Amino acid sequence: MSRSRREQASSTPSQPLCRSTGGIKFDPTEPSRQQKQRSLDHCTKYWQNSCCNATHTIPLKRRVMEPIVALFNSKCQALHDEMTCSACHPFVGTGRLERICPDLCDDWFDACKDEYYTPDGSQALSPCYGNALICSPLHSIVPSGREFCKAMGYTPGKSTDTEGVTCFDGSVPDELGVAEPEEHMADALFRIFAEQSEEPTEFMLVVVLVAIVGLFVSVKFFRRWSDEHNALKMEETRRRQQEAYRQAYHLGKSPDDATSDADSSDDDDDDLDFAPAGEEAAAASTTTGRPSTPPSNSS
Questions:
Q1: Are residues 195 and 214 in the same domain?
Q2: What's the average model confidence in pLDDT over 230-247?
Q3: Taking residues 208-231, what's their average pLDDT?
């Protein structure tokens, strides 16, 4: 370390210096400071105060991409991302927070317990992918979240720790970072659906079953109501038709029917007027019931 840097570090005792943590190496002579917002491709929520800078883009990206390349489930990937970015936290990167909250360790283990890991060169665990020779599911390597955090190179916290104050829980300090944006309802529902579709919980299975049963009952009720409604309409139609028939029987034919009969008889008379003699005689015989005698020819 140069003399000027030593003097600078000793002259600013109120600013804690960075220290390597979580597999990310920092310059021990530099304090945690505000970074350029666009200098961090990953862990951007810590840009206002962090030991991470543009020089850490590659190691951060490599660690973030490992569970993605290993095809881990989305929740496990997100928690790997969170733990990788813990090194960029202004308190973790400077040693003010040395422990990971127990609940976060447990959540991480629960999300990744069925994924495959392998020991790396430092005997810590890393996601199994590529040319790894020995791969085992996490639950067969470590039994709990506490042991998982240890195996990944982190110090698990105590049950008496206060989240975000004496142990790292993934949150951003209000005075040293950017508040995490509120998740929209649509995004939250999509995230929950994606997580549950990969690894459904018992509660979600019960919810889906109740929804299916409710839909089935609703369809049955609607069909029954529709059938009853249609039956009532048919009965009402038949009742009205029968009422109309009874009225027609008691009152006789309607005026329209009488007019139709009169027009028909007039047409018959007109046909008789213009019919030939033979046809008139046939018509007359039909009327009187006696055969007509054809006229004799006088010689």
A1: no
A2: 79
A3: 79
- Residues 120 and 248 reside in one and the same domain: no
Please check whether residue 81 is in contact with residue 41, taking contact to mean a CB–CB distance below 8 angstroms: no
Q: Which domain holds residue 189?
A: 13-199
Contacts of 32 (CB under 8 A, 6+ apart): 15, 16, 18, 49, 50, 51, 90, 93, 94
Same domain, 217 and 236: yes
Look at residues 170, 199, 228 and tell me which one is the last residue of a structural domain: 199
Which tokens hold the place of 282?
């046939």
Q: How many Cβ atoms sit within 10 Å of the Cβ of residue 163?
A: 15
Identify the helix (H) or strand (E) that includes residue 213.
Answer: helix 202-251
Phi-psi region of 71 (alpha: psi -120 to 50; beta: other; left: phi over 0): left
Does residue 173 share a domain with residue 226?
no
Residues with Cβ < 8 Å from 243, sequence gap 6 or more?
Answer: none
- Characterize the bridge pairing of strands 136-137 and 116-119: antiparallel
Secondary structure (3-state) at 167: strand
Residue 1 lies in a domain: no
| Confidence band, pLDDT 50/70/90 cuts, at residue 1 | very low
- Cβ distance 81 to 61 under 8 Å? no
C-alpha distances (whole Å) from 281 to each of 75, 76, 267, 286, 294 are 107, 110, 18, 8, 9
Token pair recorded at residue 137: 């599911």
Starting at the edge strand found earlier in the chain, the sheet holding 116-119 runs 125-127, 116-119, 136-137
Is residue 242 scored above 60 in pLDDT?
Answer: yes
